[in-house]
## 1
Amino acid sequence: MTRFNELLKHAVLLFGALIVIVPFYQMVSYSLKSPAEIERGIGGFAGSQALMTDEQCVGRNTPDRSDVETARTRFPGQDDSHVLGQLLEEVRAECQVRPAVFNYTSAFSEAPLLCYLLNGVIVTLSIFVIQVVVALPAAYALSKLRFWGREAVFGMVLFCLLIPVHAIALPIYVGLAKLGLINTYAALVVPWTISVFGIFLMRQFFMTVPDDLVDAARMDGMGELAIVWRVMLPTAVPALMAFAIFSVVAHWNDYFWPRMVVTGDRSLFTPPLGLREFKADIDGSLYGPMMATATVIVTPLIAAFLLAQRKFIEGITLSGMK
Amino acid sequence: MVAVDMPPQTRRRAARSPQTMAWLLSAPALALMLLILLVPMLSALVLSFTDYSLGATELNWVGLDNYEKLFTRSSYEKMLWATLTYVLVVVPMSVGLGLGAALLINSLGRGREIYKTIYFLPVMATLLAMAIVWELMLHPTIGMVNRTLEMGCGTWIESLWPWLADGCANGMPIWLGDKDYALWVVCFIGIWQGFGFNMVLYLAGLTGIPRDLYNAAEMDGARSAWERFRLVTWPALGPTTVFVVTITCIRAFQVFDTVEALFPRGGGPSKSAYMMMFAIYEKGIKQNLIGVGAAITMLFLLFVMIITVIQRRLTERKVHYS
Amino acid sequence: MAEVKITDLRKSFGDTQILKGIELKVADGEFVSLVGPSGCGKSTLLRIIAGLEQESAGSISIGTEPVSGIRAADRNLSMVFQSYALYPHLTVAENIAVPLRMRQMTRWQRLPLAGGLMPGAKRREQEIAAAVAQAAETLEIGALLDRKPGELSGGQRQRVALGRALVRAPAAFLLDEPLSNLDAKLRVHTRTEIAELHRELGATFIYVTHDQVEAMTMSDRIAVMMGGEILQCAPPQKVYADPDDLRVAEFIGSPKINVLPAEADAMGRLSVLGRDLPIAVRPGRQTLQIGLRPETLHLARGDAKIVGRVVHLEHLGSELFAQVAVEGLQGRLVLRAAPAQAAALQIGSEAGLDFDPASALVFDAAGMRVREILTAPAKSLAQAV
């Protein structure tokens, strides 16, 4: 009976797991297959990897007049159209690629995916660093210093905790537009520099740090700022790690905000924007490269998650701790 | 330089008072909170009574016109309807599935970690990318979903499942292109993406329940799993549930990535999936109707505030057992 | 109410044996304590009796019925947990009512709201409310009935846990260290109350504790457990005065019993620290140990059997404990003296100790009690030979 129960539970959970994982399977699978295989729904997971012709490569290398002139010596006694045909055959032969290679190379060549990835890294990292630089001293003051107005400041933190930044995106957008900051890195970063949740979290963490530690540092002659960076920061590393994961995951995956403030300027695109642009551009035959792009964008976080699951789950569910 | 020779008295004066120091430490955070959260919130309120648009030279007070539009025009009615449907479907489903998965996984002897990892994958993945993958899977002709369904045609399943029989005879649904399905597909993706997060929070809640309570329940005569759930598990998960419902609600209200990716023209077939966040983006940014966008923003904030206030009430009422 | 009989009970987790063949019979209405250091298996034994854990071998019967394979809910036992295990979301009254509601009401009657409409539900509710009120009165927690456990002090929670156990009349009460989370003063008070409660109810109590004072003061019999075995099960005074095993003698009694190495010569005559004692065991050379309770030692009037130096004094008001370091002994001897003798005991001064040889508890090298003692004076014995 208990055995049967256990089996039943596994059956239910496996069914759920299947539905959860199918899109990931599909994404990677499509990123490996040729357009024909995608079109006809054949080829299993990885496709047959039979050579296919890269039409864009052919398009780029189509022989022109001068090519025909220089090649004429190789095909003596043939008229131009024949030479052209021969050359085209050669080009087509050279443009044979494996579908997987084709998909991933086009992901990077059709759009500046590398640049998008780099933007993603720059934006997420700057957001996290600024959040910490702003939040840590405030959290320290709120937890370890007694000052007039502390309750009011903390009350403000609690109130601001209620406001989702997404909700007030429009007025922030208007403000940035007035400052002429639309289509700049600043626009991508500035609205997220203040993490009220980060302040709250760090304050809760610092409350558990004994006051004696701070007093000992003062006895050693440290100033308040030195205490924040040289005493409190090291003690807060575990909490900061979790917060880092929370923040990085949120902003790497964010699509809404970049969509709001970056219009058209591809050099500022973050990975999700790049993928969206790719989707808007495709003519129907480029599902493979699009899925390759999606795979490239999704992989870094998924890989990190699989390597350090516990930390990630801790970080993402952090907001559950308040 | 001179610091070495400074008389003690001057040095003492140079050291800032703890009061000033505390304010200095929290100043950046305070300033950013004010500029990025509070000022935009107030300006949204102000803008919602105007016909402001970017680049316009003048700004007119229009009173409650914008709000009146929200409650009278059919497109906004559709927006409210779609958003509320989405929230009312996604929240109970993803909370329920999260709880169910957590209970099942928690009761397993082995294999807990693997299910936990799989169910958490969608939380980590870039939602926009996954929405595009789902779109591909739901493609009417080459999508995996319809292909799988078609495999059931002509088998015994068809006789058991009239819906499938209908699909086989008259063509499978075109999902995202069909106004009867579009919103439900968006809901499904929301649930698919979010329930793993709830599951993890519930799992954390479950580990916090003292084993003795289950023993006591057994001694008190609670014989069935359901009785133990009613007597111990469900009440102990109360605080987790309040939190999970709140955060899922707020996230559900913010749905944007899926609808923007799936329905680039906006709102899906007959605006059946026209969500609030998308409306803010469309009105405020694409069409430069800041006033209307601001009014939707205010409505949105109102919803979020109501939910949070309810949550705080419930949390405060809860007496914790130490 | 019923007797509880345990026969050759064994429990192992993997290769570790937690319980190694427990034999115990608790009579109807008896109060038996299971006492021992942590990890001795006493809590496991209680949980197996309760049915919360499965035995590996052996049998248990409650009343006349063997209960192996019967789940805890069906064994008709009540248990008080160390953590009290009160349902945090229920009020005190609701907590106490749970065992009755679960057992006496049908699933339909228990439904919130609709349950009240089921036939018989109202009457049941009233009966239960009356039972709860009575239990609350017994424990003097009537004023707390509407509070939640989170609003109660430790002592109050403990009473609620007791109330939940005694609201129905089970075959036996099982108590798992119920006092260990209380402060010292409250613990003393509550232990009297529990003992009185037991007398009043006349029910079978099985009480687990690591505190020998609790066991001594409350029980009809004490079962001293160590290493998964019951070393001795007897009334408190017998366990104290007549232990079967050196480990029992050392565990029971505070301050701890003094243990001195002793030698028996070929004739079985005993000597301690080179001094002959007027007692003998069965003939044959062997190493022994003798145990002397602090109260059996006294200051010697004339010839002292043991001579040492006072190193520490503990005045407790009604009595005085002196720690005496003796050359050739690793530990210190503890002597109980009357406060009047304080003058004779100065730290650093020499003290001659004497004891009545008849009060010495003799153990063999393995720690087993040697009961065959010949009390003939050593001299006459020697002369006889």
## 2
Amino acid sequence: MQLDMAFAALADPTRRALLARLALGEATVMELAQPFAVTQPAISRHLKVLEGAGLIERRVEGTKRPCRLSPAGLAPLEAWMEQLRRSMTANYDRLDGVLAEMTQAKKDDMP
Amino acid sequence: MNRFNLRVEGETRLVGTRRFAARPGLVYRAHVEPALLQRWLLGPEGWTMPVCISEPVPGGAIRFEWSDGRGGGFHLTGHYVLLEPFSRIVHVERMHLPDPTPDNHVETRFEPDGHGTLLTLTMTLPDAATRQAMIDSSMETGMEASYARLQGTI
């Protein structure tokens, strides 16, 4: 299971930014490194982590190795977080109602 | 719009944030008083919490039992570690599905935000392997499927 690595991969802001860029489509290391104030080897190291976690795929095209998002990469982690997000969103939406009543009751108590 | 935001932080932490229109004092009370917890800490529509034990003192017990009204359900146990009214709660919890999930250390912060409150929930699991086990077990319970089904009916 690669979930642990996926978590570690997502913990880094540069790697999250790289994934966000790749969500727009395939890109080469040079294209990916351009917006960042870090070297290409540094970007290559981040890409290696993302590849190891199964989050991205790379193919060979001459001397280039363009990257793209792996369709299956984020599925289990995202599914779990989505489940948590959904149930807590429902909870907190209900809590809004409870708080509104509490606020009203407090006002009613005042002379 | 007060949206619940959930993100991964580091190797073992999940951080959720949510804004509320009420003052921290009220939001804090809604997190520790059983009669209030039973009204909102329910997960998907259709579930209730018939048993709610919350003893908001250090070492005080936490026990929540949920029911889907059709014979299904599960429960959570834990204890309070520290409480700073009305700004911070630290507690430990685990779900029983029916096997206990690993301990989840939870810090809940309540910060004034204009006339309302910014709530920050930080969940920390002991290590990456534990987090993995938790993800696996929660996926296995079929909660995902029932949530998805219920979501569709709302």
## 3
Amino acid sequence: MSDTDYFVVGDPILDEKAPEGPINERWDKRRFSAKLVNPANRRKLSVIIVGTGLAGASAAATLGEAGYNVTSFCYQDSPRRAHSIAAQGGINAAKNYRNDGDSIYRLFYDTVKGGDFRSRESNVYRLAQASVEIIDQCVAQGVPFAREYGGLLDNRSFGGVQVSRTFYARGQTGQQLLIGAYQALERQIAAGTVQMNTRHEMLELVVVDGKARGIIARDMVTGEIQTHFADAVVLASGGYGNVFFLSTNAMGCNVTATWRAHRKGALFANPCYTQIHPTCIPVSGDYQSKLTLMSESLRNDGRIWVPKEHGDTRDPRQIPEDERDYYLERIYPSFGNLVPRDIASRAAKNVCDEGRGVGPGGLGVYLDFADAIQRMGRAAVEAKYGNLFDMYQRITGENPYELPMRIYPAVHYTMGGLWVDYDLQSTIPGLFVTGEANFSDHGANRLGASALMQGLADGYFVLPNTINDYLAEGPFEKVDESHPEAVAAKEQVTSRIDTFLSLQGSRTVDSFHKELGHIMWEYCGMERSEEGLTKAIELIRDLREEFWRDVKVLGTNDELNQALEKAGRVADFLELGELMCIDALHRRESCGGHFRAESQTEDGEALRHDDEFAYVAAWEFAGDGNKPVLRKENLEYEYVEMKQRSYK
Amino acid sequence: MNITLRVWRQKGRDDQGRLVNYKLTDVSPDMSFLEMLDVLNEKLTLENEEPVAFDHDCREGICGACGVVIDGEAHGPEVTTTCQLHMRSFKDGDTITVEPWRAKAFPVIKDLVVDRGAFDRIIQAGGYISAPTGTAPDAHANPIPKPDADRAFDAATCIGCGACVAACPNASGMLFTAAKVTHLGMLPQGQPERASRVVNMISQHDEEDFGGCTNIGECAAVCPKGIPLDTISQLNRDLLGSLAKGVG
Amino acid sequence: MANSTLTKKRSTAYGSTVALKSAMAVTGAILVLYLIAHMYGNLKVFSGQEAFDGYAHGLRELGYPLLPEQGFLWIARIVLLASILIHIYAVAVLWRRAARARNDRYQVKKRVQRTYASYTMRYGGVLIAFFVVFHILHLTVNAIAPGGKSDSPFERLVNGFQPEFWYVTLFYVAAVIAVGFHLRHGIWSAMATLGANKASRQGKINAVAVAVSLVVTIGFLLPPLAVTFGLVSK
């Protein structure tokens, strides 16, 4: 591919840290070849960690235990509130406690295949290896996983896999794992190895002599712009699903930390890879601020349908069987309602685009439990799904035991993120990226119960074993606030804040964010086309120009100012959104959760192009107003054979 | 719906603070309470009045960030988090008073936002099991009877929102502290530090200027996660046991 | 400010809120047991002057000759006085702490589920403390003697609660009702503080608290009211 109107193609990029040899020995090899730091020297080395979700809290606790000086940051009022807490389903681990044929190799295989052959084999294998240790570690910390009467851990099958390898704590697995990591972190805070800064937001990365040496952070209570230095910086700042405005992310989730690092030279990989979850509660009005996920398990017993007729507004109970279209069962007779997330999501969008959607705005499909209630009895349905039904009723005010639920897909997770090598180090030496913030292990589609696994694998086991290799190069040259790079970074942050506060325009930050979200959802959501994406890029550019001319932020910097916080986040989303569209535009194939209109089989199914696109698209920032540079990392599959998925 | 809001406005920690009235029209019953505040803030911003600051994040009832006292009740009239409260719980024409959590241990930062760092410090004092990464035995090494695991889980569901403190007439943080003591105390892994944990956590609780528990039960009644009141009794038992053993 | 690192020095748990509450619970339990014994003695009034005065005298002799005369009585008095002082000291500390903990009051506050009795603990307790002083001056020391002094406890009782001294009766009735409320929440709270509360037992503990407080209230109200309404006389 040559240069286009939107990007230029640069040199390929190689993961130089990736060890070779048999896949099951690679992690051991890397751990052995990585340099170590003498415990006495660790005290002299410092690490900044941004974010306290599973990946950040676990890393901070572990590096603190190892004896490094850790400074940790989170924008929330407590590290315990990071959005990992909202994960419901569970965490995968290749324990094979069920003796059902599971193994590290099978978890590896399922994850590579589930990622639609767009992830690295070495990384995924390491993830599967670490999964086993994660469960041990969490149990030792007191995470109350579900247990059976014999006192041993319970497992369930999740996300369509054929083995039961998912460990869970009712519908609150993320919460329990995060609280475990949070407690380990608090223990280190008390021990003095970790200094915690809550209500602090990273606004810039400080790069000195090509190395990441610190961050500029704003104290969100006093407005103080602070410069923090360290010998290495770890970003564990989560995903960027909020570029869509409506998503299942928390309101504060943002891309600023990783985007600022990207602008300082870190490559951003596969930004267009987002996961859309099929079973969310639909939007009820313009005021809607967020979408709520309901566990995918509902599809085990609920039947999904829409009316056959366009614009049928009858009470669903009045619509006779033969006027209903159980479209998943019709199109995918063998998997029916249990097709993977991406397929279920796209099918829902298609029927709504045809004008057959239900509920406010026609953006919803029915998930009907009438048959299940008849078959199993109401009590059994209640026992299995009671808490989900209650949640649905609380949010919608409708009784799902009587009326079918309404569901619609929503943005849930972003597989893209900063490019990292096998050591989780970005293209800026000393800048490491963990968890959802990096692009690493999920390829073009993440399997259910794998996000928690990756966050904790990175934080507890991978990063603490690879960051040594970099820190062993120390001691590093001392830098202080007077260093020109630090001064410049701070000045950049201050002037941006001053601009926000001085514009005094006519539109609120949220109104821009919502408009951006509409553009992204419409053109860079489940189904993309060249026409739509080029249009979106223009729309985003116009919107960004308007934002910098007409945004209205009241108050001052010297106080808690939530509009000011949002303005900075939305400004970065407005840049990221464009890159996502460019990435989506260049990837002329349907893969993972992403359906490209120009790339489909004769019967309208996703068509991947392994010959052209079996690579990681890592984007380099080339300066404002310049086209981003595409750097490709080729993906090779030695162990898993590349195949097209079929669920018919 | 038309709603009159009386919202606590306070510039900063040292400001006196006062209730300010705002009228909102066209409130949808399907809005969450926080979305209603979003609408208010959009309106205030366009009218050049500073928006109301309030803590919130996940908006699905699990992060524990949100929480205000609505008409005298922590998290409002339903037993849930403020983000999961919907306007259908109110009537057209209602006047709704919105105040921050009030406790010396939770100083107001601005408007409805308070500093709950005291909870983190209680956890720092002992709300953990010392299990450094890599030291763990196999997860099945220690079977745990299901009833114990379930009780530990029930206590562990605490989201640290602070409603218990807000509702308690003594502004006591005992339910929060007890939830953690119970969670870790029910598990075999939590036994080695059990005696010192409760002592250190209670000492920190008291240091933070929370009030004492008088077993009135308002905390458990407003707890969005249903943390049982009897966890406090379990904490008391553990503490008295520790004191009797001379761990104090 | 937004830095949440543990910096404060830890206090010792022997002076903690929980320890103070436990002291209140134990001393409260002693006082409740005393009240029940006291009530039993009071009800002797319905058996006539001889039985009543004999019982009062018997208390002085209790344990004699193992103990000196009035020895048991003085031991009981010291234990009771210590209990009361500890009880009051603990509540004073906890009350002040609670007031400091909620330094800013709510503009609007709604009760969610708490019992009425739980509201009466502190001010009801103050009323009871005043009453105890009056009560000792009246019927024990006989320094205050509406209706005339007497060496017979029975006569002191009957004299004091004559209809013309309705205000004495009224004060007594008010104080006993306050005691009833105090016990209703106090017994429950003491059990919970001492670690007896479990979800499955909550109903039973509350039932015991209600039953004991009702019995004590009625048991204490009967003798003076019987006098006032002329059912018991010299």
